[in-house]
Amino acid sequence: MDPGEDDFIDFDWHDSQLQSLLLAADKGLTSTIQNPLTNSPTSEPPSIPDIEDLITSTSPYARHRRRRGFLSVSDLVRMEWCGLQFHYTLESLEQRTDTPAMKVGREIHQALELEVHDVVDVEIHTREDMWGLRLLNCLIGLEEMLITGKTRELNVFGFIHDDNDLHSSSSSTDRYLVFGVIDEISRDPPISLSFPTSSDITWRLSDTKTRVHPHLPSPTTNTAPKFQMMLYKHLFDALTRGPQHFDHTLFFSLLRLNPATGFSHALHAHLPPTPASEPWTLNTLLHATLTRFALFPPLSPTLTLAYLWQRTMEPLGDVAFRHDEGVLREHLRRAIGYWGGRKMDDVMKGVEVKEAYRCHGCEYNERCEWRARKAQELADGNEETRTE
Ligand code: SF4
């Protein structure tokens, strides 16, 4: 999708980076967030390989994500803006530069988050620390939901099955671990004395998007945010089923983590006491997190995109829509088919002529083969019309 239109952060992490720990504003709660991927700026246009050269014997997942062990939610929805742009960016050796609009959008999101809780930095030293911090983020965010009726930047994760492999039935080899960060969940009605899981309470998912232009996007341009939100709900709802429905073994195996490993002192200092006063391990922290998720019902099927104008922070309006599991599954079949390397053609397409406006801000504009081909087809069609 167009990074200039919406704030759209890729939630990749680096093992060695400092992670942020949030301190909730009230009641001594703590919550954590990760730092977004930082891109090194470059003034040179990115080099792009020929389309034919991009089809290799290994899958995009094997080349770009297997080492880290998971796909981000962004990895599964970004191709909605232009599949070819997504593909070029993934295969380009140079990292993409954040646009000014993306930077402003990120700052606005950080400011919104600070309205809910404060932030402190925690130094992490190991991969186990990094995932321990993510799980701690979940625990604290869920506690914040129970106590205040609202949280922001909630970490969620789960498995997506590759429906393209018709010969398999959910074996561990065709499931991908997916990780994402939900912008906001709030209780409806807002916090009261009633028990949070009672049937008259719903939990609503919303996502604030910032816009460069002072108007709502057209319905055709916000399909990626809609899939993004449906995927968040899908992941959250699966986590509410509890620890017995979560494949712990696959989780640790894909991430190449030792579940019996503890944490470094810096992270340990932020963990709550364990019930049996034994040191936390990744396994016990995962179990505690999944148990906490199970306190909640599935999220409301009504999802809301809230748009703000970047220049003034003025609300531009909300777009509410219903979760559709069938539509989401069809999108995921296409996205996972690409990452698995068997259905890459479904994604590796440029935009249609009527969507050519998307090419204007694209960094591959001048060398894009698809765009050149479409332009030639258009010219040939005009020539035929003239000679008839
Ligand atoms: S120039 Fe247009 S078709 Fe080509 S990659 Fe960019 S957005 Fe897609």
Automatic annotation (TrEMBL):
Keyword annotations: Exonuclease, Hydrolase, Nuclease
Entry keyword annotation includes Nuclease: yes
GO BP term, example: interstrand cross-link repair
A GO molecular function held by the record: single-stranded DNA 5'-3' DNA exonuclease activity
GO CC terms, sorted: mitochondrion; nucleus
Region (Disordered): 33-53
InterPro entries, per the entry: EXOV
Keyword Hydrolase included in the entry's annotation: yes
A Pfam family it matches: Exo5
Compositional bias per record (Polar residues), positions renumbered to this chain: 33-42
Family: Belongs to the EXO5 family.
PANTHER family: EXONUCLEASE V
Protein name: Exonuclease V
Species per Swiss-Prot/TrEMBL record: Jimgerdemannia flammicorona
Organism placement in taxonomy: Eukaryota, Fungi, Fungi incertae sedis, Mucoromycota, Mucoromycotina
